[in-house]
Specification:
Blueprint: H1 3-9, E1 17-23, E2 28-33, E3 38-42, E4 45-48, H2 51-57, E5 62-63, H3 65-69, E6 74-77, H4 104-119, E7 127-134, H5 140-150, E8 156-161, H6 162-169, E9 174-181, E10 186-192, E11 201-204, H7 208-222, H8 230-240, E12 251-256, E13 259-264, H9 266-274, H10 277-289, H11 296-300, E14 303-306, H12 315-323, E15 331-333, H13 340-351, H14 354-361
Parallel strand pairs: 1-7, 7-8, 9-14, 14-15
Antiparallel strand pairs: 1-2, 2-3, 4-5, 4-6, 9-10, 10-11, 12-13
Adenosine-5'-triphosphate binds near residues 27, 182, 183, 307 and 312.
């Protein structure tokens, strides 16, 4: 609350406010608070498959890593998988019985958000203000659905796109291009001193999951005599992902008839990681050449890779060398790809003047 207003209303300013920055990602979500909480959770929710699973898990619902660890015993849902929230139970009402049908996606979003907010360590009676970063592809309707999901759990909430929050957290307010390589989407966002509009953003569907599908397929073709799960191939990617400017050979051992057999997976991994590059480069180009010509040079000096996929080795150099046709470029990678979105969200939450929070973020039930 602003000093002027509290004096006028006779109320003391509320300094017991919990600020929460949340990054809701397709594959993982992160939370940071002004009280020092910093945590991530896999964006997955599971229900025990049957009575035995229930007896063993002793829970109606399991979330995050606990769900992954027990993947054989649960029906899993990744509710943000397509960058779209489906929190609309009334649309799925069963017409015949008049009973609401089981809308698992809606429930899953709700469980995930509840779980994340619980991680914040909120104290009873404490006012909570949260900025939530969501996949850029989320529509207005989806954003509203998200607001509905947190209503009653926090007092104030704002939704913003992930790459914008990454930029905000790093004080890159002007002449910067953020490229956020997530699991479900690859989002590009150019900053020019105001809130970015539609024309400043691009969302591509070839991101981490796309690399995973491709690499899994290529690995299965190569390693025919050993079963390879999608989880195994993702693990290999996360350990060794690289693009062409890195000169190296990647070997992995697979179990063949009970014995380890070594395979060279270099080409499979390179080809998969590079599969997201053409669209990335052409969208980055488009955002550069349609920028005010006077500031294009500055924009090219401020290109930042974020998101889990920014850890692909050699990527910054590859992007740089593909964009130099317009003049020199500088491409860097964020220091903290896991938390950069949530940290930006927290910073925005704390920077927002009280009056703006009340105008745009107040939730009423
Ligand atoms: N070391 C690594 N090298 C390459 N890719 C990685 C690495 N570590 C994680 N990833 C990939 O990054 C992606 C997850 O990134 P991130 O957490 O930014 O996504 P998200 O926020 O959940 O997704 P989205 O932004 O699409 O909603 C996954 O595809 C994961 O496999
Ligand atoms: Mg993300």
């Amino acid at each position: 609350m602003e000093a002027g207003e509290s004096a006028a209303s006779g109320q003391a300013p509320n300094d017991n406010i919990l600020y929460i920055g949340i990054d809701l990602g397709t594959s993982q979500s992160s939370i940071v608070t002004n009280t020092g909480v910093k945590s991530t959770v896999a964006s997955v929710v599971g229900w025990p498959k049957d009575l035995i699973s229930y007896k063993f898990l002793k829970k109606q619902v399991v979330i995050g890593e606990e769900c992954l660890e027990n993947r054989m015993a649960v029906d899993m849902i990744w509710p943000l998988e397509n960058g779209v929230f489906r929190h609309r139970p009334e649309q799925n009402d069963d017409q015949d019985t008049g009973e609401p049908s089981l809308n698992r996606e809606a429930e899953a979003v709700e469980h995930l958000i509840n779980y994340i907010i619980e991680l914040s360590g909120r104290q009873p009676g404490q006012e909570v203000r949260t900025v939530i970063g969501c996949p850029a592809r989320a529509s207005e309707e989806d954003r509203q659905a998200l607001i509905d999901a947190v209503t009653g759990k926090v007092d104030y909430a704002l939704i913003a796109s992930e790459p914008f929050l990454v930029a905000y957290g790093l004080d890159l307010f002007n002449n910067a291009l953020i490229i956020d390589i997530g699991a479900g989407t690859l989002d590009l966002c150019r900053m020019h001193g105001t809130i970015p509009s539609e024309e400043d953003q691009r969302t591509l569907l070839k991101a981490g999951n796309y690399i995973d599908t491709r690499f899994h397929m290529l690995l299965q073709e190569k390693v025919k005599d050993s079963p390879i799960t999608p989880e195994m191939s993702r693990e290999i990617k996360e350990q060794s992902a690289f693009v062409s400017s890195q000169k190296e050979v990647i070997y992995f051992d697979f179990q063949v008839e009970g014995k380890p057999k070594t395979y060279d997976v270099t080409e499979e991994l390179r080809e998969s990681c590079e599969s997201v590059l053409p669209e990335l480069i052409s969208s980055a180009r488009e955002l550069i050449i349609t920028f005010d010509p006077e500031y294009q040079h500055d924009l090219r000096q401020n290109i930042l890779l974020a998101g889990g996929g920014s850890q692909i080795r050699g990527l910054a150099e590859e992007v740089r060398s593909n964009l130099t046709e317009f003049g020199p470029c500088r491409v860097n990678t964020v220091e903290d790809p896991v938390y950069s979105g949530a940290l930006g969200a927290l910073k925005l939450a704390q920077d927002m003047p009280d009056i703006e929070w009340r105008q745009v973020g107040k939730l009423t039930r």
